[in-house]
């Protein structure tokens, strides 16, 4: 295994929210260069998994472990997890009033890559380049993060953050929901451009449409807080046709 290749190992992860156990022993390993899709019925715990991985304060880990490149993340703060290279694009991105998108990106980048000294003009050049690629106007840079952004604009801004911040493991929670057909294509192109041997993806989705454009190697199905089935891309197609009942009864 090359040194730069990342590996996220989730072992028997259990988590609860408001004293209710939601994750009941999740096992999943995501390596650099792999694209995993996570599917599952509403309420299965997919968003809970993403939020628990990022250390969201509402979710309490009650068992198991999360390791990134051998480093235990289970008791780390969200900032430390982000610095370790984890990135989550939210199902419902929140707005951050008073923080301009441009300064947000600059600050977050410095925290993530303290060793890199990228001149401001070069950094802004990168941002403008990718703004275009995700189909956002330059005026978005001077707006507060997600403030008044439409649903689809928020999703595009999340993808912009991903390509600019350059994390090692990317979790995308329903990045495809609420995107129009053109935006879906732009977003899929950006994901494919960012995809490399070093980066691992976990793409949470209900539909195989985005998977057609991205091509996951692995498809996992989360049911009632546990991975109930692992398969290949064809599994996503079968689920779209047949739903989840047949998996539940197996
Ligand atoms: N703050 C909370 N208080 C009580 N229950 C919660 C809370 N947050 C989440 N839950 C419950 O946890 C369960 C899992 O929710 P989660 O959002 O992880 O599902 P999901 O798989 O992402 O579903 P969807 O496909 O609808 O996005 C749900 O039953 C939800 O109601
Ligand atoms: Mg969800």
Automatic annotation (TrEMBL):
Molecular function in Gene Ontology: ATP binding; ATP hydrolysis activity
Limits of the ABC transporter domain: 8-249
PROSITE patterns: ABC_TRANSPORTER_1 (PS00211), ABC_TRANSPORTER_2 (PS50893)
SUPFAM superfamilies: P-loop containing nucleoside triphosphate hydrolases
UniProt xrefs under Pfam families: ABC_tran
Domain of life: Archaea
Record key words, sorted: ATP-binding, Nucleotide-binding
Full protein name: Fe-S cluster assembly ATPase SufC
Native source organism of the sequence: Oxyplasma meridianum
Stretches that traverse the bilayer: none
């Amino acid at each position: 295994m090359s040194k730069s290749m990342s590996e996220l190992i989730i072992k028997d992860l259990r988590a609860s929210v408001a004293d209710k156990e939601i994750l009941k022993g999740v096992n999943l390993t995501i390596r650099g260069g792999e694209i995993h899709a996570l599917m599952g019925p509403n309420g299965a715990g997919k968003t809970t998994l993403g939020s628990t991985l990022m250390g969201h304060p509402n979710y309490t880990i009650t068992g198991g472990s999360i390791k990134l490149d051998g480093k235990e993340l289970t008791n780390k703060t969200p900032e430390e997890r982000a610095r370790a290279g984890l990135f989550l694009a939210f199902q419902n991105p929140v707005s951050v009033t008073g923080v301009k998108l441009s300064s947000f990106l600059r600050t977050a980048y410095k925290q993530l890559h303290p060793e890199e000294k990228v001149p401001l003009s070069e950094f802004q050049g990168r941002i403008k380049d990718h703004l275009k690629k995700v189909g956002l106007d330059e005026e978005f840079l001077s707006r507060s993060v997600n403030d008044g952004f439409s649903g689809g604009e928020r999703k595009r801004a999340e993808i912009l953050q991903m390509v600019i911040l350059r994390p090692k493991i990317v979790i995308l929670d329903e990045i495809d929901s609420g995107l129009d057909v053109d935006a879906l294509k732009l977003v899929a192109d950006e994901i494919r451009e960012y995809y490399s041997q070093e980066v691992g993806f976990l793409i949470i989705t209900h539909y195989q449409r985005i998977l057609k454009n991205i091509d996951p190697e692995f498809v996992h199905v989360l049911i009632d807080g546990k991975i109930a089935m692992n398969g290949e891309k064809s599994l996503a197609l079968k689920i779209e046709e047949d739903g989840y009942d047949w998996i539940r009864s197996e």
